[in-house]
Design goal:
238 residues, 80% helix, globular, single chain, mainly alpha
Length: 238
């Protein structure tokens, strides 16, 4: 009976892995890759040939600016919105007693994280295909590391040990540490990306910084409130 259940679980894990890899591969083929490296080389050539002192204030190519903005929105939606929401969902499940609600919150967590990974993959494809990846700034270096950690977390999530097994507690600790660190570094990289956008386009990012800070503050507030909600309610009991 144990051998049979082990085989069934192995088959389910393989099916999940194949299904997710198939969905990820669709991103490579269906995601619209706008622009090309050739266009960027032409732009850089024009900039290099211009000897004027006002070269830094030249208007950026609209196509390249659109690609940068799209890349930014994709990675914001993945690292700084969907992933924190997924963490909130799974933390909320700790207060659930109903098995049905536990399953719902787990599936919400899984769907949000899966969507975040696929969107991050699309953003990675954009940066590889369309940008000059010289990795000469912290935003690019941290982004490369995050892409690798994202997929490490996916593999860890698919091959999670069964509840009650010896490896489960170690897996849970590692999954929690990596997920939390990934979200924090993702938020930091959004700020670094905004700074890089300002340096490249000479546009103000004050409004975006304020809006993003408000959003992160709200997420942190809800995280802290739901963590202590039972304790807060118990204060009303004599």
């Amino acid at each position: 009976m144990f051998i049979f259940s082990t085989k069934v679980r192995r088959i389910r894990v393989q099916q999940k892995l194949i299904a997710f890899l198939f969905q990820a591969s669709l991103v490579f083929f269906l995601f619209p890759l706008v622009g090309s490296e050739q266009d960027h080389k032409k732009i850089r050539g024009i900039h290099a040939s211009n000897k004027s002192h006002n070269i830094k204030h030249m208007k950026m190519n609209p196509k390249l600016e659109f690609e940068i903005k799209l890349h930014g929105f994709l990675l914001w939606g993945s690292m700084a919105f969907l992933m924190p929401l997924g963490i909130l969902a799974i933390r909320f499940s700790n207060r659930q007693r109903s098995q049905r609600r536990l399953r719902i919150t787990f599936y919400v967590h899984a769907v949000l994280q899966k969507a975040a990974v696929l969107i991050a993959t699309a953003g990675a494809i954009m940066s590889i295909k369309n940008f000059n990846n010289s990795f000469n700034n912290n935003h690019q270096r941290l982004g490369l590391a995050l892409y690798g950690v994202v997929w490490l977390q996916v593999i860890a999530g698919i091959f999670r040990p069964q509840r009650g097994s010896r490896a489960r507690s170690m897996w849970f600790f590692g999954h929690w540490i990596i997920g939390t660190a990934m979200s924090l570094l993702g938020v930091i990289n959004v700020y670094l990306g905004l700074q890089a956008y300002q340096e490249k386009t000479r546009r103000s990012i004050t409004t975006w910084n304020i809006l993003f800070t408000v959003q992160i503050s709200l997420i942190v507030f809800f995280y802290l409130v739901q963590e202590k909600w039972d304790y807060i309610r118990n204060q009303e009991v004599a």
